[in-house]
Structures are given as structure tokens and as C-alpha cells.
Amino acid sequence: MFKKIMNADHARELFLKALAPLTGYELLPIEESDGRIAAEEIIAGMDVPHYRRAAMDGFAVRASDTLGAGGNSPVMLKLGKNVEKGVCGRVHTGSPVPEGADAVVMLEDTVFHDSMVEIFTQIHPFKNVGEIGEDVQKGETVIEEGHRLRPCDIAVLASLGIENVKVAKKPRVAIIPTGEELVPRRKRTLRDGEVYETNGLMADLYIRKWGGITRLHDIVTDDPAKIKEAITSALDTDLIIISGGTSVGKRDYVPAVVGSMGELLVHGVGISPGKPSAIGMINGKPVVCMPGYPVAGIVALYWFARPALWKIGRVPDEPEKIVRAILAEKITSRTGYMTFTRVRLETPHAGSYRAIPLATSGAGILSSVSKADGFVIISENVEGRSAGEEVEVVLID
Amino acid sequence: MFKKIMNADHARELFLKALAPLTGYELLPIEESDGRIAAEEIIAGMDVPHYRRAAMDGFAVRASDTLGAGGNSPVMLKLGKNVEKGVCGRVHTGSPVPEGADAVVMLEDTVFHDSMVEIFTQIHPFKNVGEIGEDVQKGETVIEEGHRLRPCDIAVLASLGIENVKVAKKPRVAIIPTGEELVPRRKRTLRDGEVYETNGLMADLYIRKWGGITRLHDIVTDDPAKIKEAITSALDTDLIIISGGTSVGKRDYVPAVVGSMGELLVHGVGISPGKPSAIGMINGKPVVCMPGYPVAGIVALYWFARPALWKIGRVPDEPEKIVRAILAEKITSRTGYMTFTRVRLETPHAGSYRAIPLATSGAGILSSVSKADGFVIISENVEGRSAGEEVEVVLID
User: Which of A75, A257, A392, B89 could form a disulfide with A69 if both were Cys (CB 3.0 to 4.6 A apart)?
Assistant: First the structure.
């Protein structure tokens, strides 16, 4: 029996409050910085453009020279090198606007013969001229500290001649699969009572996907001394994830070992599946204990490990990848538990979704996650959702 | 002037219809297959579990032996090696259920002393027993062809002892930046009329992010022969992206060169920004011509290059990453053009979003994308959206 089941939001807040973002950074060539977090504000060291640039192919003019020009009453200008009263200059998109000119007439509004240009429209000053600093001004903040860099941001850095960028370090994450029933995946045959290790692999892949650097420990058997040894060896990382041995059975030593080495903040959480999750801190290092049941494990990864990783890694909160769908059948949930119901999505019409709840049995059925596209998350104080209701489906990464 | 502006959806359909998915595959260790596309159906070669497994810590029994047991009237069983009438066996979660037993009584419903076990509850057959194949049955399809593999899918493969998986090849994409004003990024100083090359870099990063293997060509000047040479050198790839030179100005040679080498399917599209986009096919190889103006360029990447990459790479359609937000100010759009309006998101309250349109000038202002979190896409037949309306914001990758 769990002594106390802690509310899911409360447990997460308690955990996140105990975490401090990493302070280090690394310097990367901008080409390799996609998806990384800017570790400092980036200030433009130059104007973009750094010269007055033509926004159109056409002729640079003094706008005042076009006064009165119209479709039937063109103004005639000389084509010259230096633009001055009565003289215009050829420009194309992106080329510098000559000194003396203050506007550009589009090619389409002109007729050119010999060294003379007929202008068929009256334009105002600054028309079709990109001023210095129009895109980015020298001294301007182009990237805020903590921003996640996207290709379009990196293009801005490139436009400023910036070659390297300071980004937040990726958190290092140790993953420790435990369980005497587990067998390494390269072993060919299984005896009764044995299963291939999968939770550690799954955690490893999710953490890498979410931005961490992983170190996957060998399988540890259900032995407190061995578990302690494995945790000790992982204390040089920034986050420790232990899979299995988190419940209240005879062989569930993990929470007690974590408590003996540091502080067990949470054991027993109001999430379903995922109740036997536990959270601790050892020497300032956060520890997520994910249940050995794989579906419960993935919920613990989503609920605790991902936000912890992101807080440590200075990754800004991002909206979930959500799809709105009509629920095909009612789903029931466990009052007092935040319930993660697996659903499959169908698209009967382009752009419209139906969510089909998977007739899932227990938290032990890994294939039920693999068959699911996402979760419908039902809060503690709700008993379920009805068929036909619109629900938000959180897509599984 | 563009001869004809093609409707955005029509242009995209025309393009995608001309593309054939790549047929090759590569064999990868499952650990490296996250995000990749299964190139074949994957069938379970074994049952999971492959033995009857206990779902709880407790005692394996013959359910019939618990008949009449209750809180005040326990049934007494002997603890033994072989379960038979009157004899039960110790099990823990995941361990094999001994032959002869057909159910497991939870530890919490028992009291154990010496070699005798008191059972305080009556249970039915199969209770707390995971049958063979309960998770995955031998012969079952666990992964459909064309499915994008996620860590939870890979965990299922691992549970089946599968070590390698056939995945679709990543498309190879050549990116050719053109423009005589462009300067390679390592060059330190810019003269008037010069800008650093950024569109090619941006396309390169987006294509890599979206699952392609890129080859970024050196900058090509505005010279039809040089452009042709660059395209020719790229015909060994699966998709060619050319940036710049796509409009109808004097130096815009790209569409004509593409047309001369193959077929120009589209030139001039009803998207804003992005009108000067062009699409062609050369020797069966798709060519996306993205406008040199960076904001128009990114729209062309999203609208044409990404779906083309995904069709070639056999990537299933995925919902956009969308956030619903209340529009803070009205936005106007260009009738007849599918308009991509850049917006910044604010979160006045947790979970609620406000979309602030960016007071953007032209398609040439790269920093306006960098300042934006996403696009509000307004269809051709709508004039705009009002302040206070709920809109869908497509987040920029």
C-alpha cells in the first residue's frame, strides 16, 4: 500500500521547484545550433541592410522629379551615373540606391529608350527603398536569452555575419533499468520469467529526442546494494532515471534506496497509469523513478522526466502537440487520478479527427501505446468523457 | 508580370501528383531508428509475454480453491512447489504462474505464516494472470508499413527481440542559392550591394530537420549557364531547391532555365508572401524555386518543399503543430492569395494564448519571422480576421 497518493500537479510542482537550470554553455557554429537554447542575448553588431537597398527592379529617382507624372503624362528623365535633379539611375532588387535618389520607380511604370527614361507614375519619397537597418538595427536584440533557435533564427544570425553562438549545455541523463526478470536485448532466447529490457531503451530514446545526452546503464537486479552502486555511479550526471522496482512489493527497493541516499520527495502519484512513480533528490541531483510497467513508465517520463529535463536544460515551455478530435466512444477514468487514456486517431474527412479509445487492459501492455496516436488526459475531478465530445489529444512523440 | 497566378492548393496538388515515393530502404539498428519510416510491415515472431505471467505480487492458486473466501472467512492453503488442489505458490509481478494455477491472489489479500497462506478473498479464474501473447501475439502486425517509428514503437520491437529494422531512405536534397549580391558567410566585410547568404543555410537546416539529407551548393551568380551547370550537378539527388532569381525581373533566370531543362509546372503562386515561387520537373526530379526574399522563401519551403520531401520520403501526413489563440488586432489579407501572417504569441493566463500580428513590412524582412512564433494562414476568399477572433496559429519549426 502507498502511504499517501500525491496529487499529480502537486507532485510535479514540488519536483520542478527543487531543480536548478544548468549554468554552463557551449559555443557552437550556427549551422549546428538548430533546436538549441540561446545561452545569452544576441545583439546585432551591424545594420541589415547596411546600405540603402532597392526593393524593386527599376530606376532610382528624386521623388520630387516624378511630380505630376501619370499614365498619359510621363515625366522624362536622363539616365546617368549620379542621380540628381532630372537624372535617374538603373537599380535592381537588392542593389544600392545611389546617393541623391530617395525613391525607386518600378520597371513596369517606365519606358526606357536610349539614355532617356519615361516615368509614368508619381511616387513619394522612400518608395521602394529599404532603409539602412530596415530588417535589423545595429545594437538591437535579435535573440533573447533562453530562446530555442530555429532555422529562421539562425538565418538572421547568418545575415549579421555571426558564425558561432553560445547555447545552453544539454543535460546529461543516466538511465538505470532494474529488474531481475530483465534480459539484455542481444540475448537470443528467453526463459519463462524473463523479458527483454525495453523501458531503459525507451527512456533513452525519449530523452535524446527531448534534448538530453544519455548514458544507459546495464541492467541492475533487484538488490538494494546494486541499485545504490548504480545510482552512485550516476551522480556525475544532471538527472537520473531509474526504471522498475518502484512499487510497494517485496522486491521494490528503489524508493527506499533513493530515500536512504538523499530525500524521497514523492512516492505514489495520482496519475493513472503511473501511480507507483517516485521522485527524489540525491546530492542536489534529481531522480525520477519510473514504474516498470511500460505504459506507466511512459506516463512518468512525460509527466516528470521531460519537464525536469527542460527546466535543467533551460528549454522554454512549449505547447503540446495537440489535435482536437471527436471521441468515438465514452471513456471512464479513475476519480482522484489524472488519467492518460490511449486513443487512436482516424480522419474520416480531411482535417477532422475521430479519437478511438483503445480497449486497454493494464499498464503492462506496451503495444497499447504503440497502437495509440496520443493520450486524452482526464483530470482528477472528472469521471470520464462522453462519446461525441470534442477532446484534446496530446500526440505521443 | 506573371502570366498567371496559380491557386496555392492547386499548385501544390499539381506538384505532389508528379512525385513518386522513393522505393529503397536501409537496415538500421532499432536504437537508431527513432523518427524514421518503417519500410515494411513488421510481424511479431514471438508471443509477449511468452509465458503466463503474474500481474501482481502474491500467490498463484486454483481459483476454485478460493470459493467462499472473504474478509472474515479465509480459506487456508498450503504453500508448495506445484500448485494443485489445496496448494498455492509464491509469485511476484512478472514471474511465471506455475502450471496448475489459474489465478493470482494479491499479497494484500493474504496472510502468510509458516507454510500456510490464509486467502481473504474469492477470485475468478484468470484474475491477475497475464496470458501468453496478452501484449503481442506471434504473427500479429506490430508496425504497419509507412509508420513513423517512435520510442514507444521501438520498445515494442525490442520486446520481440528485434534488433534491426528496415526504414525508408532519407531523400537527398540539393540546395542551390543564387544571386550576384550574395556573399559566403565566412567573408568578413560586406560592400554596398552585398549581403550574406542566408536562404540556402535556412533551407538546409529546415530540410535536415524535416528528414532530408542535404547538399548545400556554393553560391551561383545570376547567369543562366552557371545556374544550368549547378542544376545539372544536382540531378543525382531526389529534390532540388533553388533560392533566388525566381521573379520576373531582368536577372531572374531560374524559372526559364528550369523550363529549358525540363518542365516548368508552376510560376507565380497565389500565396503571400511567396508569389514568385516556381515548380518544375527535370528528368523526373522535382525542383522547388523559392523566392530570394527570405519570408517568401520560408513560405515556399513550408508550402512546397516540405510536403514534397515527405511524399518522396514516404513520411505520413502529420497534423501541424497548432495553437489556438485570440487575435489581439485585426489582420488584413490579400484576396486571391493564401496569406501567411506572422504572429507572436503571448500567454496572459496559463494555457490561453493571444496572437499579436507583427507589423510587418515586406517579404524581405527576415527578422519578422525570427520574431514570430507562428503563422495565421488566411485563405484566398477571406479578406482578413477580426480582433478578438479565435485563430489557429501554425507554429514555425
Answer: A75
Structural domain includes residue B41: yes
Q: Among B51, B152, B192, whose Cβ lies nearest the Cβ of A96?
A: B192
Written as nine digits, the cell of A115 is: 539614355
Q: Are residues A41 and A66 in the same domain?
A: no
For residue A47, which residues of chain B lie inside 8 Å, CB to CB? Answer: none
Provide CB contacts within 8 A for A34, sequence distance 6+. Answer: A149, A150, A151, A154, B205, B208, B209
- CATH number of the CATH domain containing B121: 2.170.190.11
User: For residue B363, what is its C-alpha cell?
Assistant: 517579404
Q: What angle do CA B153, B159, B160 make, to 5 degrees?
A: 100
- Omega of the bond leading into A125 within 30 degrees of 0 (cis): no
Query: Within its chain, how far is the Cα of A127 from the centroid?
Result: 40
How many domains would you assign to chain B?
Answer: 4
Rounded to the nearest angstrom, the gap between the alpha carbon of residue B166 and the centroid of all alpha carbons in its chain is 18
Q: Does A43 touch chain B (CB under 8 A)?
A: no
The answer to the question of residue A3 being in a domain is no
pLDDT, residue A69, reads: 93
Within this chain, do residues A228 and A305 fall inside the same structural domain, yes or no? yes
B250·A55 Cβ contact <8 A: no
Cell readout for A299 is: 506516463
Claim to verify: residue B277 and residue B359 sit in the same structural domain:
no
A 324-343 residues inside an 8 A Cβ radius of B = none
Per-residue pLDDT, A280: 98
Who among B154, B196, B294 is closest to A201 (CB)?
B154
* CA-based radius of gyration for chain A: 31
For residue B322, the chain A residues in CB contact (below 8 A) are 322
pLDDT the model gives residue B307: 98
Instruction: Say how many residues make up chain A.
Output: 397
Question: How much is the average pLDDT of A259-273?
Answer: 97
Closest by Cβ to B155, choosing from A48, A292, A294: A294
Please state, in angstroms and rounded to a whole number, the distance separating the CA atoms of residues A166 and A149: 11
Question: Domain range for residue A29?
Answer: 25-48+134-168
Say if B386 falls within a structural domain: yes
Closest CB from A57, A156, A294 relative to B370: A156
**Cα A77 from Cα A57, distance rounded (Å):** 17
Q: Categorize the per-residue pLDDT at A56 as very low, low, confident or very high, splitting at 50, 70 and 90.
A: confident
Task: Please name the residues between 175 and 214 in chain B that touch chain A, using a CB distance below 8 Å.
Answer: 179, 181, 185-186, 188, 190, 192-193, 195-199, 201-202, 204-206, 208-209
Kindly determine whether residue B370 and residue A134, on different chains, have CB atoms separated by under 8 Å: no
Q: Strand, helix or coil at A169? A: coil
Peptide bond into B319 cis (omega under 30): no
How many angstroms away from the CA of B159 is the closest CA of chain A? 5
Question: Could you report the predicted ipTM of this complex, rounded to two decimals?
Answer: 0.94
Q: Does B321 touch chain A (CB under 8 A)?
A: yes
pLDDT value of position A66: 96
Residue B1 lies in a domain: no
Report how far residue A190's alpha carbon sits from residue A205's, in angstroms, rounded to the nearest whole number. 24
Residue of chain A whose Cα is closest to the Cα of B360: A135
Residues of A in contact with B51 (CB under 8 A): 192-193
B161 and A196 in contact by Cβ < 8 A? yes
Chain A CB within 8 Å of residue B9 CB = no
pTM of the model: 0.94
What pLDDT does residue B256 have?
97
CA atoms A28, A34, A37, A40: torsion sign: positive
Contact B369 A152 (CB under 8 A): yes
Q: What is the pLDDT of residues A369-386, one digit of tens each?
A: 899 999 999 999 998 999
In this structure, the answer to whether residues B163 and B148 fall within a common structural domain is yes
